Amino acid sequence: MNKADLVSLVSVQLNESKASASRLVDAVIEGIARGVEADERVSISGFGTFRKKLRKPRKGVNPVTKQPMIIPSSMTVTFTASQALKDRMDTSATAATGTAPVTVGG
Question: d(Cα 58, Cα 63) in Å, to the nearest integer?
Fold first, then answer.
């Protein structure tokens, strides 16, 4: 699913125009971006958590010259799915394959 698909889905579910749904989706995305930027974390109950994370410098290879190089540190965003979303994905996988998920140690 891409942004246009999401806008279409929101438009249908809310019985709104695609323009209105697009503004809504843009507002949610902007809110998440601002929250991660300012607070370093945005939690959406039942969905997951977006976090700002510092990626440490690391060794790499220049693909053109094949010379070793140090890739500098940078900021990135990570997403951790909530248990409710994970459970929903397990249920979807079970329905699609007709098999139960395998659990270890339980």
Answer: 15
H helices present in 15-103, as ranges: 18-39, 83-97
**pLDDT, tens digit only, all 106 positions of the chain:** 999 999 999 999 999 999 999 999 999 999 999 999 998 899 999 999 999 999 999 999 999 999 999 999 999 999 999 999 999 998 877 777 666 655 555 4
Eight-state DSSP code of residue 101: P
Q: Which CATH class is domain 3-96?
A: few secondary structures
Helices (H) and strands (E) in the chain, counts: 3, 5
Domain ranges of the chain: 3-96
From residue 52, alpha-carbon distances to 32, 38, 65, 71, 79 in Å are 11, 9, 32, 19, 9
42 exposure class (CB count in 10 Å sphere: 0-12, 13-18, 19+): buried
